[in-house]
Amino acid sequence: MAKNNNEVPINGLYDDEGRIFEEPAVDGPAPRGAVDNAPQGEQAEVSLSKEELTALCKESVCPGCDVFKEAEGIRLRALADSENVKKRLLRETEEMKKYAGESILADLLPILDNLDLALAHTDNLSPECKNFVVGVDMTRKIFLDTIRNHGLEAVQATRGVEFDPEIHEAVGTVQDPALEDNRVAQVVQNGYRLKGRLLRPAKVMVNKP
């Protein structure tokens, strides 16, 4: 039936032709395909704690399977490598502290050599010069005691001891019937150790009868 032109549409439910508007449903499930039309990049963010993530991993991987065993082996090897690196760094740090003054003490050795050389030529001196020699000898002793406090010690190199290539450096050979073969016949330059480490070998003449 045609709508009377004098009638006013109730709440806007009729159009000019007298047809009823269909109001969209407010409640109820969303039309099919509405979820599919959502942007592809938008996904729900999942936030897990470290403990929850660990538990999830244990649930996903069986402790008895090969994948779990391989992952556990990799983890243990990484821990072992980390401990080895830590120990090596600590060892290198301690060694660096121990031998920190090595280069300085090595530069001071020529001074000690010159004092030894001066004292080695003191024969047939006048009384005045002998007093000077006494002063040089006292200076040498004070200097030697000072560097000994830093861990420096002389290498054993005296006439008659057996030649040791680890602490002696042969600079020549001599023939001395009074000594056995491969014995130190003369010390040319004293050698020194620093806290057990060879700082400079003793230069010696070796007997070769």
From TrEMBL:
Chaperone keyword on record: yes
Family annotation (InterPro entries): GrpE, GrpE_CC, GrpE_head
Molecular-function GO terms, alphabetical: adenyl-nucleotide exchange factor activity; protein homodimerization activity; protein-folding chaperone binding; unfolded protein binding
Gene Ontology CC terms: cytoplasm
GO biological process, one term: protein folding
Keywords linked to the UniProt accession: Chaperone, Cytoplasm, Stress response
Function: Participates actively in the response to hyperosmotic and heat shock by preventing the aggregation of stress-denatured proteins, in association with DnaK and GrpE. It is the nucleotide exchange factor for DnaK and may function as a thermosensor. Unfolded proteins bind initially to DnaJ; upon interaction with the DnaJ-bound protein, DnaK hydrolyzes its bound ATP, resulting in the formation of a stable complex. GrpE releases ADP from DnaK; ATP binding to DnaK triggers the release of the substrate protein, thus completing the reaction cycle.
PANTHER family per record: GRPE PROTEIN, GRPE PROTEIN HOMOLOG, MITOCHONDRIAL
Family: Belongs to the GrpE family.
Subunit structure: Homodimer.
Protein name per Swiss-Prot or TrEMBL: Protein GrpE
Taxonomic lineage from the root: Bacteria, Pseudomonadati, Thermodesulfobacteriota, Desulfovibrionia, Desulfovibrionales
